[in-house]
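[User] Once you have settled down, look closely at the record that follows, and write a paragraph about the fold.
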Amino acid sequence: MWAVLAVLGVLAVLGGTGVLTAPAARAHDELVSARPAAGSTVVAPTRVVLTFDEPVLDLGGRGNRVVVQGPSGDVTSGDATSGAPVVEGATLTQVLRPGLAQGRYVVTWRAASKDGHPVSGTFAFTVAAGPTSATATRAATPAASRTPTPAASRTPAPAAATPAGAANRLAAGAAGLAALALVSGLVVACRRRR
């Protein structure tokens, strides 16, 4: 009889803490594509366009950030951006300064997921010398934008060192063990009284 009550007590505690009933966690937004593509070589890019699998939260200039470091590597003098990034649904667009120098550019981005948590990542592309005539430049630019996009690296925001789901499961497991110890102690105490 006491064993049945002990099992029911443990199941009630575990169900109450969410260990038995917790739904699967929904992942944050993910970067689907980037233009220029990660690892690509382009001629005279005018903007960086990041497309996500869910709409990006527009926080009015706070939370969404795109930094493009130029060949000098110094963020202050090498930042190739012009203005703040613009959010349109699942797209985050950052205009670039005109006339970018040849070389490797590193894009570091941070976007606010639909659930409010930030996601971030980094990738690089190369700006190459273009044709000398304006007609050749216009003809080459659309071809560069049609380049297939390999997956850019996506990393969790620095604040998310320990995923909340893992911390919640750990806390729930500890609560479950404490409940099991309490119920076991009660069972032993009741048997000793007999």
Remarks:
- Confidence is low (pLDDT under 50) at residues 133-168.
- The chain has two domains: 2-20+163-193, 31-156.
